[in-house]
Design a protein that fits this description.
The complex is a heterotrimer of chains A (317), B (272) and C (358).
Chain A lengths: L1 H5 L1 H8 L1 H32 L6 H17 L4 H24 L7 H23 L17 E6 L3 E6 H23 L1 H11 L1 H6 L4 H26 L8 H13 L4 H22 L8 H15 L14
Antiparallel strand pairs in A: 1-2
Helix pairs in contact in A: 3-7, 3-8, 3-10, 3-11, 3-12, 4-5, 4-6, 4-10, 5-10, 7-8, 7-10, 11-12, 11-13, 12-13
Chain B lengths: L19 E12 L2 E12 L3 E5 L6 H8 L7 E6 L2 E2 L5 H7 L1 E3 L12 H7 L9 H6 L3 H20 L14 H14 L4 E5 L7 H17 L3 E5 L3 H7 L2 E6 L2 E6 L1 H6 L1 H8 L4
Parallel strand pairs in B: 3-8, 3-9, 6-7, 7-8
Antiparallel strand pairs in B: 1-2, 1-4, 4-5, 9-10
Helix pairs in contact in B: 3-6, 5-6
Chain C lengths: L12 H4 L6 H21 L2 H27 L7 H18 L5 H20 L7 H21 L12 E2 L3 E3 L2 E4 L5 H24 L1 H11 L1 H6 L4 H28 L1 E2 L6 H14 L4 H25 L5 H22 L3 H15 L5
Antiparallel strand pairs in C: 1-4, 2-3
Helix pairs in contact in C: 3-7, 3-10, 3-11, 3-12, 4-5, 4-6, 4-10, 5-10, 7-8, 7-10, 8-10, 11-12, 12-13, 12-14
The chains are: A mainly alpha (317), B alpha/beta (272), C mainly alpha (358).
Chain lengths: 317, 272, 358
């Protein structure tokens, strides 16, 4: 038993390095996708202190809109642009109808409101596009398909899906773009001001409402990108909603307000859970992917309650 | 302001009759690289009113936090009733008889005045979960016994009318008074008051001063208070400790401290 | 006009500290109990009892349980569904091991197991607060759900992976299993819910309830007043999980008759949390109102199209119901973030001073 836990997995890793590398790659890709979802959370939490539970459903909603439009005869690129427009309208609507009347309520009320929003979007999405899973229009959007096999060592093969490579590249581009937007533009500066202190930002003439609409829109764009990538790997359906929960341990690791934290947290969770599932999961009957990420986050929290990049909390009275 | 300080003060300093309640020896406290308190020593005698004063950021509140076990000093010892105290949790300080109020009122906002003061009796109530489930019988009797004590405090502080009002709705001055009541309900040996009169108008200050003196003289409670209003400090306290930049710069009876050059420099500002 | 407390003087602290100090409230409660125990059993049909009243009561109890933890002690939990599941599986195993013991006793005992599990997952609450704590309770949710699926012993290695409730009698009346009448099950569920709601109200108004609220409102001040944070929080976790566990066991024993792991999924956790929030954090009465709203509203929404004679597919109705519930939740949060309990209080206050505005 002890051998199975502490020795055997490492022996396997050593003996089959190609398989191990494949697992790492899988973990990397999953991590990138978790990070993208977490990124959406971080954007909104930073600017408004709202823990946006609806981020997961926004991913599905964006994906569904894109595919649904295409199914109804809209060309792929036009559908993409229209979807971006829809996310913009959605952001404005959420700011106007949900966020503005609830400003200054306690965290838990805002969290509940976003869960209400989740229900609404599920009902709305299914009503319009139907509940059955759909195939993502990967090729139509010009994204690569297929795979490349790399020979590894004397007997091994590592297979990389092109779409995964594209996902990684797009994620990196997106994070870079967001970084530039936040640090170099006027709106970005206003946004950081809002993140620091709502009232102070208000008092120097920054419109909170405008900033919130913008971050919800930015989160919507991130959701769209995530929806395309994730949809290309499986299908677009409301089952994807469950991945939103996976973003929570990622946020715990990286902190609720740190963009680099979201990415590193995503990668740690992605690697950790794939490796644990494939090398240790068999010992307890498999399927530990469903909770392993939370246990990592839980143990981590016990030792560093402030997250990976947070500062040590000094309590004051 | 002297008008309402009726009773003459007991001569405390150097009085051999008085025992030492608490002594702080060479305490230093720092957060990361920031030194909040540097090598401070002083004592608090039983039955006196001891003031801790100093400019903002002098380390006064940190000192109180050290005394009631919320911060742990890196160096130095604290002797409580003749015994050197080990490192402990804040709730242990409470059970040893140290109560306090806070600079920014720390009442339980969702509870009524009555419940807030009742919460001060928590340590003195012991009926277990199963009696609480039944309520009728021991749990109810215990509750009523303590309710009587709490009603005494409510009468003493003259807050009968706001008994059932959630404290979040009370004006600031009354909140401070409820907070004092909550600390009194603990029947402490040592009562720490962190700026009990901050943000009050003259009338409220007079009321609060009267309560503090009454608590000290009627219940014999030892009091350590932080306060910025010099008039109040000079009138109320038996002895004063002055802190500046985390260091002790004076200690003694009010008149003596008032005359000290170091204190005048600290308050008026002198180029070092 | 009729709701006045003028002339009702309290001459002792006992009377002042009663659960319902105002006479009209006592009468009101009496009427509700009379309706619940006499009028409904006499008049209601099986559908109303089995599909509306029993689930409503089960959810009310679960909402009270979560309210103890979140509303009174301020610890946000998203693992309610799993804690209910622990109660259900524990009760099921207990009936297998002790087939002759009264099933109500076993249901009440099963809560102890979920109390233990709840306390274990409450341990991190000493260091972790707020939304971070919510994530650790999600760990409980997903881990326990996985246990319900993977550990065959829990469901006696059934091929279906589900637990099925055996038929059990009490005093010659079948109260659990497929043959039990809705009326018998209704009485069992109602009695357990009422008794637990009454007992927990006692705890909440006494020393222990106060210590929970102290932790909720200002944990640092509570600690400086002698409250041991870990002990107090763990007790809240244990008591809350006990109640949720009993509710979970009742859910399968007296309502569903059979349950799969997915019956106790994250969806159930959210449902209960909604009941607590909409009913009002920190209010036992609010838990009943929240449960009524969240459980009965979808049933009503589904019935509306057919009543109006509009012909839309069942699926469309389902989607519309989802949308409406989501929108209503947001609406109520905006109108009154403190829930129905606060609305009820405001209404009573208005009645008290009627015809004057205040």
């Amino acid at each position: 038993m002890l051998y199975d836990i502490f020795v055997d997995p490492f022996v396997q890793m050593y003996q089959m390095p190609d398989f191990f590398l494949q697992v790492l790659w899988e973990g990397f890709v999953a991590g990138i996708l978790y990070a993208l979802i977490a990124l959406g959370f971080v954007l909104i939490f930073k600017a408004s202190g709202v823990f946006n539970f609806a981020q997961g459903i926004m991913v599905v909603f964006a994906g569904l809109t894109l595919v649904g439009l295409h199914e109804n005869g809209v060309p792929a690129f036009l559908a993409l642009i229209l979807t971006i427009g829809v996310m913009g309208v959605l952001a404005y609507g959420i700011e106007r109808v949900v966020m503005r009347p609830l400003v200054n309520q306690p965290d838990i009320i805002l969290l509940m409101a976003t869960i209400g929003l989740t229900y609404f979007l599920i009902g709305f999405g299914e009503l319009i596009f139907g509940g059955e899973p759909k195939r993502m229009i990967t090729e139509e959007l010009g994204l690569p398909t297929g795979s490349t096999a790399f020979e590894f060592g004397e007997r091994g093969l590592v297979i990389l899906q092109h779409i995964d490579i594209a996902a990684a590249v797009i994620a990196i581009l997106m994070v870079t773009a967001l970084g530039i937007f936040f640090n170099k533009t006027r709106i970005g500066r206003a946004l950081r001001a809002v993140a620091d202190d709502h009232q102070a930002a208000l008092s120097v003439g920054i419109s909170l409402n405008q900033i919130w609409a913008i971050v919800w829109f930015a989160a919507g764009l991130v959701a769209l990108a995530t929806g395309i990538m994730w949809g290309a790997r499986s299908d677009v359906s409301f089952a994807l909603e469950i991945i939103a929960f996976k973003a929570l341990p990622v946020l715990i690791l990286g902190g609720f307000t740190s963009i680099p934290g979201a990415i590193i947290g995503g990668l740690i969770i992605g690697f950790g859970e794939k490796i644990a599932e494939l090398y240790w999961g068999g010992l307890v009957g498999g399927g530990i992917e469903s909770w392993f990420a939370y246990i990592i986050a839980l143990i981590f929290l016990l030792f560093r309650p402030q997250g990976l990049f947070g500062e040590k909390i000094i309590e004051r009275v | 302001m002297n008008a309402y300080v009726g009773a003459e003060k007991l001569p405390v300093a150097g009085d051999p009759e008085r025992e030492e309640l608490l002594r702080v020896d060479n305490v230093s406290l720092s957060f990361g690289g920031v030194k909040a308190i540097t090598d401070i020593s002083f004592d608090i005698l039983k039955g006196e009113i001891r003031a801790i004063i100093g400019p903002n950021g002098a380390g006064k509140t940190s000192m109180l936090n050290v005394i009631n076990g919320f911060y742990h000093p890196q160096e130095g010892t604290i002797t409580w009733q003749g015994k050197v105290r080990r490192k402990m949790k804040p709730y242990e300080a409470a059970s040893q008889g140290i109560a306090r109020t806070f600079q920014n009122v720390a009442l339980f906002k969702g509870m009524t005045t009555l419940d807030n003061i009742m919460s001060g009796r928590s340590l003195k109530m012991h009926k277990n979960f199963f009696w609480q489930l039944l309520w009728r019988g021991p749990a109810e009797r215990e509750e009523i016994e303590h309710r009587r004590k709490v009603e005494d405090i409510i009468d003493f502080l003259e807050i009968q009318a706001i008994r059932k009002t959630p404290v979040g709705r009370l004006p600031y001055g009354l909140q401070k008074r409820v907070e004092l009541g909550r600390a009194l309900a603990m029947e402490p040996d040592l009562l720490l008051l962190d700026e009990p009169m901050a943000g009050m108008n003259l009338e409220e200050k007079e009321d609060m001063s009267r309560f503090i003196i009454d608590v000290n003289q009627e219940f014999g409670t030892t009091i350590a208070l932080i306060e910025h209003d010099m008039g109040v400090v000079m009138d109320l306290s038996d002895r004063v400790v002055v802190l500046d930049y985390g260091k002790k710069i004076a200690d003694g009876p009010p008149e003596e401290v008032q005359a000290s050059q170091a204190v005048i420099d600290a308050y008026l500002g002198v180029s070092h | 006009m009729f709701y006045r407390e003028a002339g009702q003087f309290k001459t002792s602290y006992e009377k002042d500290q009663a659960l319902f100090p105002i006479r009209q409230d006592k009468i009101g409660l009496g009427v509700i109990l009379l309706i619940a125990f006499v009028v409904i059993p006499l008049t209601a049909n099986d559908f109303f009892l089995a599909s509306i009243m029993i689930p409503f009561l089960v959810f009310s109890l679960a909402a009270i349980g979560l309210n103890v933890l979140t509303g009174f002690c301020g610890q946000l939990s998203l693992g309610t569904g799993a804690f209910m599941g622990v109660g259900a599986y524990a009760a099921y195993k207990l009936t297998t091991i002790f087939p002759d013991v009264n099933v109500i006793l076993l249901v009440l005992t099963s809560g102890i197991f979920s109390a233990i599990v709840g306390a274990i997952f409450g341990l991190p609450s000493l260091r972790i607060k707020g939304l971070y704590l919510a994530v650790t309770t999600l760990a409980a949710q997903f881990f326990l759900e996985w246990c319900f699926i993977r550990i065959g012993w829990l469901y006696n290695y059934n091929a279906s992976g589900a637990i099925e409730i055996p038929t059990r009698e009490m005093l010659g009346v079948v109260i659990s299993g497929a043959e039990a009448t809705p009326l018998a099950r209704y009485f069992v569920v109602l009695s357990i819910t009422v008794v637990i709601a009454f007992l927990i109200s006692n705890v909440l108004r006494g020393r222990i309830g106060r210590s929970w609220m102290m932790i909720r409102d200002m944990d640092i001040a509570a600690e400086l007043m002698g409250i041991r944070p870990l002990q107090t929080k763990l007790m809240a976790f244990a008591v809350s999980s006990y109640i949720c566990g009993v509710a979970g066991a009742m859910m399968v024993f007296f309502w569903l008759n059979a349950a799969e792991p997915s019956s106790y999924s994250i969806t159930l956790s959210f449902q209960i949390l909604f009941m607590v929030i909409l009913g009002g954090l920190g209010s036992v009465g609010g838990a009943f109102m929240g449960a009524a709203f969240i459980w009965i509203l979808p049933i009503v929404l589904r019935a509306i199209p057919s009543m109006l004679g509009v012909d839309i597919g069942a699926e469309t109705v389902e989607h519309l119901a989802f949308m409406v519930i989501g929108a209503l939740i947001i609406f109520f949060l905006i109108v009154e973030p403190h829930g129905f309990a606060r609305l009820w209080q405001i209404a009573k206050q208005k009645l008290r001073v009627w015809p004057f505005p205040y």
